[in-house]
Structure formats: structure tokens, C-alpha cells
Design goal:
Strand content: under 5%
Structural class: mainly alpha
Largest sheet: none
Radius of gyration: 20 Å
Length: 403
């Protein structure tokens, strides 16, 4: 139990770094556009490249984690993030920057989803949502830190400094994880388990077998439903998130650092959910959480689109964050249970669709931002996510509100 708790803390450090790297570019878009003499919409390629690579590589990390061990893959992915973050910091031009960001996304893809799958293996279903919420606390904090530090570094240290700091964080996380796994593998229980697995042997990897097993998963109606819903969620809620700082800068005249600071409230909403997840789950149930989450995201996006003063837009950031994590944590639990016999592959498919949905949303919103269409696009996303939350609430597997 103590080893599991320690491991959860260490993978949470890696997850913190992963989410910070994912969101660090959001407050940089306007500055990157000015430095490289491109539009803000074009600068959003650094966000889309990360998201596309992150999503596509899930198709690799799922079976790799199931075969080699989830913790081993997490360690390798974290170490690779340290390398590619350093490369990003030294990018000489925008094209190299986009390619380096894609490489970071490809490496980071092996951290959070496999951490979720590891929790699914180690934690009983009754305690799983609360445990996932603890991991979510680390990812939310990472998002907050990345968005704030991205804006702060852009204005004070230079945007390259943000990636240099991330490289160090990833390196520390990889070393600590490696040392703990090596120490744990030396215990008598671990040695005996390894001997049993060695005696049993493992079937060689087969691409045809992997494709067949993935297609078998996709033939399960519940799997198809969860994957479809999370792709839509990614486009509507996560795709718009990348442009909230740009809305703050262009719509309300905030600086990059102030916009990044305002976005911290998005993370505060998520962090508040992670702290009170147990109570709210007991009170609202999974269905109530999904409905409340969709409603709050919609309200937040409408405030960001049409608020007459910046204070209301800041409230919109908070509501969007709280609502997103209510809805998304509910879907995460469904993902860990939709195919227990192939949990690593199933959860990484879930992440794949989330970030492919996000990248699609980013590309659509990027088309609108240079034309001044952010308010109507945010409004359309609000309507869509409200409908999505209601649909999830009706169909989610789990209890409704208590009482």
C-alpha cells in the first residue's frame, strides 16, 4: 500500500510536468506570432502539433504499456520529454519549433493515460474515481503552472526559458521514478512475480493481432460511445481552451502574463473539484456530475464570449475549469472500466480520441480567431457542450444523485 502511494505521487509529478508542457504555449501565441511574423491563428500550430502527436501516439503506447509494463513506459516517455523540451527551447525557427512541439507531444502521450491505466489495475472501482481525482489534482496544478509560467516567461525571461525549466522537471521525475521502480523490483515479492511471468512467457507482438484486438474493442457499443463522446468533448471544451488567453489579450487588453494568470483560475476550478470529488460524487452521483459539468462549461464559455468587463470573463475561466473536470473525470472512470481485459489499450484509445478531438477544435477555432469570430465560436461550443453533458448524464454507467 505504501509503495502504491509513493508511486502515485511520483507518476503525479510526471503528469504535472506533462500537463504543464501541454498548456505552456497557450499564453505565448500572440508573442510567438509577433516574433515569427505570422498570425495568431498560424501560431496555434504549436498547440495543434502537440495535440495531434499526443493523440496519434496513444495507438502505440497502449499495447506497449500492456506488453512492457505501464511504469516502464511512463519512465521512458518522461525521459524523452526532458530531451525534446530542451530541443524546443533551442528551436531556431518556427518550423523547427512546431516539429519539436510535436515530438514533445509524442513523448508526453505515454504519461497520463498509462498512469490512469495503472490506477485502473491497482485500485478497486469503488475507490477509483477518488484516486483518479488525486491524479487529476496533479494534472490541473501542472496546467495552472504551465499557463501562468508560459505567460510570465514570455514577458520576463523569454519563452525559451519556459521549456528549459520543463526539461529539468521531466528529468527529475524520470530519475525518481526509475529509482523507485528499481528499488521495488528488488523486493522478494517482486522477484517471485517476475519469475512467474518469465516462466509463463509472453506472446510476441503481432501487428495483425494488435489491429484485430483494437477492432474487437471498437465493436463493443460501450467503447464506441465513450470514444465518440470524449472526441466531441475534446473539440468543444479543450479545443477552445487554447484561445482563451488570446481572447483575454485581444478582447480585454490584458498582457500575456496577466492572461496566463487569469487562466490559472481555470485550473483552480479543476483543483477545487479534485479536492471535493468524494463529497460531490456522493451528493450528485456520476450522472449529476456530468450534467453540472456541462452546464458550468457552457456558462463559462458564454461569459468569455460576451462579458462586458474582464472580471466576468475571469469568472468564466473558473466555471469552465470546474465544469470541465466534473464532466471529464466522469468520462475517465468510464474509460477505465469499458474494457478491463485490455485496459492499457482502451484508456490510451480514450486519450487518442480526446486529443484528436482537441486538435480538430484548435484548427477550427484557429480559422476563426484571425477573423474576429471568437465570440460566436465560443457560443456554439457552449451550446454543444451543454447538449453533450445532458447526453452523458443520461447514459453514463454509474449512480445518479444520492437520495
Amino acid at each position: 500500500m505504501q509503495s502504491t502511494t509513493t508511486m502515485l505521487r511520483l507518476i503525479s509529478l510526471a503528469a504535472f510536468s506533462s500537463m504543464a508542457s501541454m498548456r505552456v504555449c497557450d499564453p505565448m501565441l500572440v508573442a510567438l506570432a509577433a516574433e515569427f511574423r505570422i498570425t495568431t491563428g498560424d501560431a496555434a500550430a504549436v498547440v495543434a502539433a502537440f495535440a495531434v502527436a499526443y493523440g496519434v501516439l496513444q495507438l502505440v503506447y497502449g499495447p506497449l504499456g500492456d506488453r512492457l509494463g505501464k511504469l516502464q513506459v511512463i519512465i521512458g516517455a518522461t525521459a524523452a520529454c526532458a530531451v525534446f523540451s530542451a530541443v524546443t527551447a533551442m528551436a531556431p525557427g518556427f518550423t523547427v519549433l512546431v516539429v519539436a512541439r510535436a515530438a514533445m507531444g509524442a513523448a508526453a502521450a505515454g504519461i497520463i493515460p498509462l498512469s490512469m491505466a495503472w490506477i485502473g489495475d491497482q485500485v478497486p472501482y469503488a475507490q477509483r474515481q477518488e484516486t483518479l481525482a488525486r491524479l487529476m489534482g496533479a494534472t490541473v496544478t501542472g496546467m495552472m503552472a504551465g499557463q501562468w509560467f508560459g505567460g510570465f516567461a514570455t514577458e520576463t525571461l523569454g519563452w525559451r526559458a519556459a521549456f528549459a525549466v520543463l526539461s529539468v522537471l521531466f528529468a527529475v521525475a524520470a530519475v525518481l521514478l526509475w529509482r523507485h521502480v528499481r528499488a521495488a523490483s528488488a523486493t522478494p515479492e517482486a522477484v517471485a512475480q517476475a519469475a512467474l511471468e518469465s516462466a509463463a512467457g509472453r506472446a510476441p507482438f503481432s501487428l495483425a493481432g494488435y489491429v484485430a484486438s483494437t477492432l474487437a474493442l471498437l465493436r463493443v457499443p460501450r467503447v464506441r460511445w465513450v470514444l465518440t463522446v470524449v472526441a466531441i468533448e475534446g473539440a468543444l471544451a479543450f479545443g477552445t481552451l487554447a484561445f482563451v488567453p488570446a481572447r483575454m489579450v485581444d478582447g480585454f487588453g490584458l498582457s500575456a502574463s496577466a492572461a496566463g494568470g487569469a487562466m490559472v483560475l481555470y485550473g483552480v476550478g479543476g483543483l477545487l473539484y479534485s479536492v471535493f470529488a468524494r463529497r460531490w460524487l456522493a451528493w450528485l452521483g456520476e450522472r449529476g456530475l456530468a450534467l453540472a459539468g456541462g452546464t458550468m462549461i457552457a456558462a463559462g464559455l458564454l461569459l468569455l464570449a460576451w462579458a462586458p468587463v474582464v472580471a466576468w470573463a475571469v469568472v468564466g475561466c473558473f466555471l469552465s475549469g470546474l465544469g470541465f473536470y466534473m464532466l471529464h473525470n466522469t468520462l475517465q472512470v468510464q474509460a477505465t472500466q469499458m474494457a478491463p481485459e485490455a485496459r492499457g489499450t482502451a484508456v490510451t484509445l480514450f486519450a487518442c480520441l480526446l486529443f484528436l478531438g482537441q486538435s480538430t477544435g484548435v484548427l477550427i477555432v484557429a480559422f476563426s480567431v484571425d477573423r474576429g469570430w471568437l465570440p460566436p465560436v465560443f457560443t456554439a461550443a457552449a451550446v454543444g457542450v451543454l447538449v453533450l453533458g445532458a447526453a452523458v448524464s443520461r447514459k453514463v454507467q454509474g449512480k445518479g444523485p444520492a437520495g
